[in-house]
Each structure stands twice: as structure tokens, then as C-alpha cells.
Write a structure and sequence with these properties.
Elements: H1 21-35, H2 37-58, H3 73-77, E1 81-89, E2 94-99, H4 106-110, E3 119-123, H5 130-139, E4 145-153, E5 158-163, H6 167-177
Parallel strand pairs: 3-5
Antiparallel strand pairs: 1-2, 1-4, 2-3, 4-5
Length: 178
């Protein structure tokens, strides 16, 4: 049976006494981590939150868009649905304030720096006649929340499908139609 090499069996490396410098450093680090467990948990949680916010920011999910050209090309290509609030109905289309995804605490801070402005939304495949504009003004309320699915854009407007939740009035109309 071969004999073990010198220094391997002792576990310490130096031929004699106690643990080596690497083992001492590891022991000290372990003791420090045990003593400061709350701090370490907070740092890990903070890093995770910062990473999630950076990811959301890079995806532009929390950005308020005020111009069609601010909207990433990927949003147009993937026909992303965005949320908004109706402000005006004109012969050109709907003037809508984009409402970005909100993240608690961060959104309150971001609102201070968010630009003001409205997106012009054209109803995809629809040319608004004066009667159509009047009909839309009867059907849609100012400040009404809506969703718009982006199908295309140019420098001044978005071509979209517009989705509106009619609420209780819509349910009553559906029942009356049956």
C-alpha cells in the first residue's frame, strides 16, 4: 500500500500545527457572515430589486411615451398593447396619455421627471368622418382608460386597435341585445 505524501494527511499543509492561512481566512469570513446575516440578506434583496429595475428600464416598460418615435421598434413589430387615458377625440384620431407600468415607490419618483404629452392614435383601418368623430365622442368618456395595440407608426401617429372596457353599461347593452 503506498504511503500518503507528506503534508496531505495532516490537513494543514505546513507539516505541523494548526490550520493554514486559507482555512483561517475562511473561518473569519464565516464568523463575520454569521454575525451580519441581516445585512447580507438586505444586500442580496437590494441587489435583486436593483437588477429587476434595471431590466424593466432596459425593456422600457416603465417609460412614459409622449411621441410615436419614442416607442421601441420591437413594440411595433410585436404588436404590444399599452395602457392609456383618453384626453380628446379629433378628426385626426384619439389623443391619449400613455400610462406606463408602475413599480411601487419608483413610479412615484419617476412621475416628477416624466414628460407631459399625448400620443395621437389612429384607429387602424378606419378613416374618421365627421359623423364617426361625433359617434366616438358619445361612446367614449374623457379620461376613460383604454388599451391600444400598436400595429404601425409614423412620425406623428400610431395606427392601433383600441380596446375599451365598457363596464356595467356594456353588460346592460349586451343583455338588451339578446
Amino acid at each position: 500500500m503506498p504511503e500518503p505524501e507528506a503534508g496531505v494527511a495532516g490537513g494543514g499543509g505546513g507539516g505541523g500545527g494548526g490550520p493554514g492561512p486559507a482555512a483561517l481566512a475562511l473561518a473569519r469570513l464565516s464568523e463575520w457572515a454569521d454575525a451580519h446575516l441581516g445585512l447580507l440578506r438586505g444586500l442580496i434583496a437590494g441587489t435583486a430589486v436593483a437588477g429587476a429595475l434595471l431590466l424593466a428600464r432596459s425593456l422600457r416598460l416603465t417609460t412614459k411615451f409622449t411621441s410615436p418615435l419614442e416607442i421601441p421598434v420591437e413594440f411595433v413589430e410585436k404588436n404590444v398593447k399599452l395602457r392609456g387615458k383618453l384626453h380628446h377625440i379629433t378628426e385626426k384620431g384619439l389623443e391619449v396619455e400613455h400610462i406606463p407600468i408602475t413599480v411601487p415607490f419608483i413610479s412615484a419618483i419617476q412621475k416628477k421627471w416624466q414628460p407631459e404629452g399625448l400620443l395621437l392614435i389612429r384607429l387602424a383601418g378606419v378613416e374618421l368622418a365627421p359623423g364617426g368623430t361625433a359617434w366616438l365622442q358619445q361612446q367614449l368618456l374623457p379620461k376613460q382608460p383604454l388599451w391600444f395595440q400598436i400595429l404601425g407608426r409614423d412620425s406623428s401617429a400610431l395606427d392601433c386597435l383600441v380596446l375599451v372596457h365598457k363596464g356595467e353599461a356594456g353588460a346592460e347593452e349586451q343583455q338588451a341585445m339578446k
